[in-house]
């Protein structure tokens, strides 16, 4: 996956702004309200010069659907001006209302007022945040401005006061089964995959009155977690991982075991009354002249049903559950077992054997540590350097201000995070990454001492920079690194694999490693491999590249236009699925209301 070069981005440090110090007693609410009132007046009169006079020349405007029906980031006056010339009048932004504001000092040399506000467009209700930075003459000016579509007027989510108030005596079970089986008609949306991404978007669509069916190949919801390796546990904290509408209980552990998450997903599907067909597979999908879909679903008993749906959503993950297994000569000579981590269950299966794990990111570490716990002789083969941070030191620094005990509600944290353009976010992340590495110095020095190669992420951006670009390449340490340092997990990384032998691997330098089991923890390929089998090559070839960053710093393709009308990708970690599932659902709802189509996107 080709990397996108980071454009020149400069943080607004106090030195650069010519500001010696920011008074800690500044009335942030008063400053923010004056600024927003001026901004609103210029918007009302379509005074683009006036709007730009309130924003620093290298300021930022990030939009999610409200003006562009896309995810776009505009940097600098010239690009913001073009956006406003093209979209401001039609969007009819209005009803700007300040909610709150506070002074933030992320670092001693950075300070801004972070302000939350709400607004309206011609068709929707919006939320946003802006940041004001100090000027050398004691004033405050705009640095970042974020506009986010929250709801479509008159079609808000059916939650809170819009929930169903009618009693239901004795009819609910029959009604649910009829709805689940789609006895009275076809769904509007069919979602392929019943993991967290499929469940999230189906829940969003349900509360927008869009009939939706999830088709899941496994026997039960959660099986994709239930039958991964037993040692699997989430490495990001509970506060980051809540699903929409139903948060984890306050007693939930900080790091969720995979089997526990599997049970929660199954409960979630039932509690949210999602329509799920398990033990079912989408075998074919063809698009008609109206860009609607005929989708063939095969059940476990071999029976099939063809649904005519308007929208098709792929929720099969970034890798489409297609294991990536590197190919080497001599495979037919090897006498042991070869498997990918997706098919691995437990170290108990290999007690008394020698194992080599190919890979050095999260799954490889988890599995190798499990082997050590069961006294299995295990060697990790590291192909490339790995970003390593401990959850102890990294977790509070990365997640602590937004997603942590006593911090913000998840929905608020998601929006505050999104309000900071990714290129700016990653500049700040470089500082955080260095601080984590300094705190983890003893561990990282120990890894270096035994030859384990580490890095600090893409351009020193750490964990999230790698997640945005490749969805892997890191290990959030919960103990396996110490096992490598102590030699309990053996390490091989001094030569490239040349070929299989009868008993293991031979390397380019002539060395060999014998193993009864070769386990590839080498990630996954592309979802296009699976989709090609469903769509056919011609349709699949029109799907845009997914993941990694655009030149504006936005993630490519996921949650919006894929290049194939009415086909969508729903993917990402638990937090991104929670947040962006609403964006995807809003686009589908708007299309169904005739308010939006792909041609209306601002490109």
Helix-strand blueprint:
Layout: H1 14-17, H2 28-44, H3 48-53, E1 55-64, E2 71-75, H4 77-91, E3 94-107, E4 110-120, E5 124-134, E6 140-152, H5 172-181, E7 189-192, H6 196-206, E8 212-215, H7 223-226, H8 258-271, E9 276-277, E10 280-287, E11 293-299, E12 304-309, E13 311-314, E14 337-340, E15 354-358, H9 362-373, E16 377-381, E17 386-390, H10 391-399, H11 410-418, H12 422-439, H13 441-450, E18 454-455, H14 462-470, E19 474-477, H15 480-485, E20 490-492, E21 497-500, E22 504-507, E23 512-514, E24 517-520, H16 527-535, H17 537-541, E25 567-569, H18 574-592
Parallel strand pairs: 1-6, 7-8, 7-13, 8-9, 13-25, 14-24, 15-16, 15-24, 16-20, 17-18, 17-19
Antiparallel strand pairs: 1-2, 3-4, 4-5, 5-6, 10-11, 11-12, 21-22, 22-23
Give Rg in angstroms: 26 Å
Shape, per Cα inertia axes: globular
Distance between the ends: 23 Å
Percentage of residues in DSSP E strands: 15-25%
Helix content: 25-40%
Give a count of the beta strands, DSSP E runs of length 2 or more. Answer: 25
> Largest beta sheet: what is the strand line-up?
2-1-6-5-4-3
Overall average residue pLDDT? 96
> Total number of helical segments?
18
Label the structural class: alpha/beta
Largest sheet: 6 strands, mixed
- What low-confidence regions span 5 or more consecutive residues with pLDDT below 50? none
